[in-house]
Write a structure and sequence with these properties.
It contains 7 helices and 10 strands. With about 325 residues, it is an alpha/beta fold. It has a single domain, classed as archaeoglobus fulgidus dsm 4304 fold. β4 and β5 form a beta hairpin.
Length: about 325
C-alpha cells in the first residue's frame, strides 16, 4: 500500500465554506445512491451467490505484502518500498523480510509516471517474494495481499508467471486477496456505471461469494488464464466484497478451501483475514514512522555536511518538517 507524507496542520477552513461543502457533498452522495439503486435493480435477480461455511483447512499458511511511502524532497521524489512475508505454522509465526529499496524520480519524469513506476516495482517485489517463499517452504497455501491478475507489464508479468509455475509445480495453492478492487469484469457487457464490488455489495451477505464457480479470465498480455470471485467476509455493509484471484491450475474444490479458510480467520471488525492483517500492519509505512526516520537520518548527517548543502535533502514546503 502506498503512502505519501504531508506536513500535519490544524484545519482552519472558514465555517461558511464548510457549510457549502457539506451541502454539495450531501447532495452528490444522495444522487449517487439514487443512481445506484436504479442500476442494480435489474441485476440483482441474475446474481446467485454460493454460501460458504468458515473452516480452518490449512495448518501452514503464508501471506505476503508490500508497502511504499513517498518522500517529497526539494529536488526530487523518492519512494521507500518494503516487502514482508508471514508464515503461520500452527501457533508459530515466522517472518521473511526483504531489504527495503529506494526508488528515485528520474529527471523529467512526471509525478504521475513516477507513482506508476513505484506501484509496479512494489507489486513486482511482492510477487517475487511470494514466489521465493512458495519455492523454499513447505506451505499448504500462499495468499498475496494484492491481485494475482497482472496490473503492470514487464518484470511484473514475469514475476507472476514464475509464481504460478512454482505454485503449480509444488502443488501449493496461491491466491490474491484484493482489498480495493477496481475491476468491472462481471457486468462489462451491460455498460455499468459502478464497479463489481459495489454492485455485489447490494446482494451478497456474510459468507457468500459470487460468481461460483470462479469466473475464468484470459490475460491477453500474458496468454495466461486466471480465475476470480468476490467474497463477502462480514455482515457490515460498510465493508464491500473483496475480489479473490486464483491461478488456473486450482480446481473448484481448492478455491473453495481457500475461501472457507479466509472466512475462518477473518477479523470481524475489519473483514480481512488475520494473516493478511498481520502482514499489512508489519509492512506498512505510517506517516509518523517516516517523519521520525527522516528526521533522525537528516539530523545525523547535518554535522557532517556544510549547511549550504542541506537544501537538497530538505522536503518541499507543505511536506513534513524536521
Amino acid at each position: 500500500m502506498a503512502e505519501t507524507g504531508f506536513m500535519e496542520e490544524e484545519a482552519r477552513t472558514h465555517p461558511e465554506l464548510v457549510k457549502l461543502m457539506r451541502e454539495e457533498l450531501r447532495e452528490y452522495l444522495a444522487q449517487l445512491l439514487e443512481e445506484f439503486l436504479r442500476e442494480i435493480k435489474p441485476k440483482l435477480d441474475s446474481i446467485t451467490p454460493k454460501r460458504l461455511d468458515p473452516k480452518a483447512n490449512f495448518q501452514v499458511l503464508a501471506a505476503a505484502d508490500s508497502g511504499s511511502f513517498n518522500v517529497v524532497l526539494a529536488d526530487r521524489l523518492i519512494a521507500i518500498i518494503t516487502t514482508l512475508s508471514v508464515i503461520s505454522e500452527r501457533s508459530n509465526i515466522r517472518r521473511i523480510i526483504r531489504k527495503p529499496v529506494i526508488c528515485e524520480q528520474r529527471r523529467n519524469e512526471s509525478e504521475q509516471a513516477f507513482n506508476i513506476r513505484v506501484d509496479s516495482e512494489r507489486e513486482t517485489r511482492l510477487v517475487e517474494l511470494a514466489a521465493d517463499v512458495v519455492k523454499k517452504y513447505d506451505l499448504e497455501a500462499m495468499i498475496l495481499d494484492g491481485p494475482l491478475i497482472p496490473r503492470f507489464r514487464g518484470a511484473h508479468i514475469s514475476a507472476i508467471r514464475n509464481l504460478v509455475e512454482i505454485g503449480e509445480k509444488r502443488r501449493i495453492p496461491v491466491a490474491g486477496f484484493v482489498k480495493r478492487p477496481e475491476s468491472g469484469y462481471l457486468f462489462r457487457n451491460q455498460d455499468p456505471e459502478f464497479l463489481d464490488s459495489a454492485i455485489l455489495s447490494a446482494r451478497l451477505n456474510a459468507g457468500e461469494c459470487y460468481p461460483w464457480p470462479p469466473k475464468k479470465i484470459l490475460d491477453e498480455r500474458t496468454g495466461m488464464e486466471f480465475q476470480y470471485t468476490y467474497l463477502k467476509t462480514t455482515s457490515d455493509r460498510r465493508i464491500l466484497p473483496f475480489r479473490i484471484d486464483f491461478p488456473n491450475y486450482l480446481d473448484d474444490e481448492s478455491c473453495k478451501r481457500i475461501l472457507e479458510h479466509m472466512l475462518a480467520i477473518t477479523d470481524p471488525l475489519k473483514g480481512v483475514p488475520a494473516i493478511i492483517m498481520m502482514a499489512d500492519e508489519e509492512v506498512k509505512l505510517s506517516k509518523k514512522l517516516m517523519r521520525d526516520l527522516y528526521a533522525e537520518c537528516v539530523a545525523s548527517l547535518m554535522s557532517k555536511y556544510p549547511e549550504k548543502s542541506w537544501g537538497v535533502v530538505m522536503t518541499r514546503w507543505g511536506e513534513f518538517w524536521l
